[in-house]
């Protein structure tokens, strides 16, 4: 009886990769939806510029720049979702041919890629806030928060790689 339970439990764990596949599908759909949202935002910006030009008004380049940074943020978030989806698929479902720069052999590799993407996302967010330049004191708080968060994430990436380019899981395996 005990052996049957172990076999059943092993089968259950072996088939649980399909649960991870559901997460991959949700992340991939989210990534595609974000791309569509970015396209819709671009369309809205272009229509607004056309309306302003037809009315003889001047185009607010500062607002225009801030809106383009919003589009960049949307696409970066889409890329983060895509990287996360591919990483989960590769780690839990099956091997998949990836781009060379998207090497993922462990959860730490996946977290490292996500951390790098978050740093980039926060940097673009900060540039957007600088472009808007509405309240300088809030800008200082934004900048401080972005700098501290980025420093922590970059420190984490360095710790994971241990400064020698190896994943800390390699030490456990050897």
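Sequence proposed for the structure above (174 residues):
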């Amino acid at each position: 009886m005990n052996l049957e339970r172990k076999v059943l439990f092993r089968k259950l764990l072996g088939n649980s990769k399909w649960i991870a596949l559901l997460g991959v599908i949700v992340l991939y759909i989210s990534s595609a939806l974000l791309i569509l949202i970015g396209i819709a935002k671009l369309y809205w910006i272009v229509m607004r510029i056309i309306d302003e030009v037809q009315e003889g008004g001047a185009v607010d380049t500062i607002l225009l720049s801030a809106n383009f940074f919003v589009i960049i943020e949307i696409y970066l978030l889409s890329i983060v979702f895509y990287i996360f989806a591919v990483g989960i698929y590769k780690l839990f479902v099956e091997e998949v041919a990836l781009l060379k720069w998207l090497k993922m052999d462990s959860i730490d590799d996946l977290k490292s890629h996500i951390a790098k993407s978050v740093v980039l996302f926060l940097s673009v967010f900060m540039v957007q806030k600088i472009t808007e330049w509405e309240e300088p004191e809030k800008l200082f708080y934004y900048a401080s928060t972005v700098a501290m968060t980025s420093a922590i994430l970059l420190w984490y990436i360095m710790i994971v790689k241990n400064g020698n380019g190896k994943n800390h899981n390699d030490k456990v395996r050897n």
